[in-house]
Specification:
The chain is of the alpha+beta class. It has 5 helices and 9 strands; from the N terminus they run E-E-E-H-H-H-E-E-E-H-E-H-E-E. A 9-stranded mixed β-sheet has the order 1-2-3-4-5-6-7-9-8, with helices on both faces. The longest helix has 21 residues.
Length: about 240
């Protein structure tokens, strides 16, 4: 596996045998023009995912199609969130930018840092959590625990054209690897990661379980007039392995 990892920026791209590449957004080297191009690509893929699998999200296409450009830019520029985009590999140069128009986005996952005191809930937008406190100002436990560093995995989607390729597992692995990098840089022993999934979605539950997540609790929420039930699944990411 080839990779390039400027760890100082916590950004790296990677390719594998299935010719998928992963790019972490935003990146410190993103200029304004590229950021606008990426925001357009991000918006397009997110809206497409809401259309193709509306039952898999706690948001709707009808809600997000109304978002202005500033909303997509705010999400991409949010310092407490990291978007991992999977694109079809169209060449051998893994250092080249990948989310531009000539490359097809085929998967996405988002990691959002939240206050540990806040309850993870499907009825609460992940973008509404209190993210105002700077990471550098937070204190860590004497035992190296990271109770102040709770990560919510959100918005996982794989395009139908790339399903049954293992891409869903790879995206989750990339998210967990990112959390581990953060924990290592902060001198922590582990990081807590949670994900929300509807109870009917047996395939997704099996996927998360295979990646080490365990069911913590079940809760109810609504999307429009539709009542749903969701599971909170969590796991720890150790920095020692």
């Amino acid at each position: 596996m080839d990779s390039a990892s400027p760890i100082g920026d916590l950004i790296y791209s990677r390719k594998d045998a299935n010719l998928f590449a992963f790019e972490y957004l935003p990146s410190s080297w993103t200029d304004q023009k590229r950021l606008l191009d990426i925001a357009s690509k991000y918006r397009q893929f997110r809206l497409q995912s809401l259309q193709l699998a509306p039952e898999a999200f706690a948001s709707t296409y009808e809600q997000e199609i109304l978002f202005g450009q500033e909303v997509w830019l705010q999400r991409l520029e949010n310092g407490n969130a990291k978007h991992i985009m999977a694109v079809q590999q169209n060449g051998d140069n893994i250092h080249a930018p990948r989310v531009e128009a000539e490359n097809e986005c085929v998967g996405m996952i988002v990691i959002i840092e939240k206050e540990d005191s806040e309850t993870v809930s499907a009825s609460t937008s992940p973008w509404s959590y209190n993210l105002s406190q700077k990471k550098d100002d937070r204190s860590d436990g004497e035992d190296g625990s990271c109770h102040n560093y709770h990560y919510l995995v959100n918005g996982l989607f794989v395009h139908p054209s790339s399903r049954r390729t293992g891409l869903g597992t790879k995206l989750i692995q990339e998210a967990l690897a990112y959390v581990k990098i953060l924990a290592v840089q902060r001198g922590l022993q582990s990081g807590l990661v949670s994900i929300l999934v509807d109870t009917w979605n047996k395939a997704a539950i099996a996927l998360y379980s295979s990646c080490g997540f365990q069911v913590i609790e079940e809760s109810e929420y609504t999307v429009g007039d539709s009542a749903r039930k969701a599971l909170t699944m969590s796991r720890m990411v150790s920095t020692s392995s």
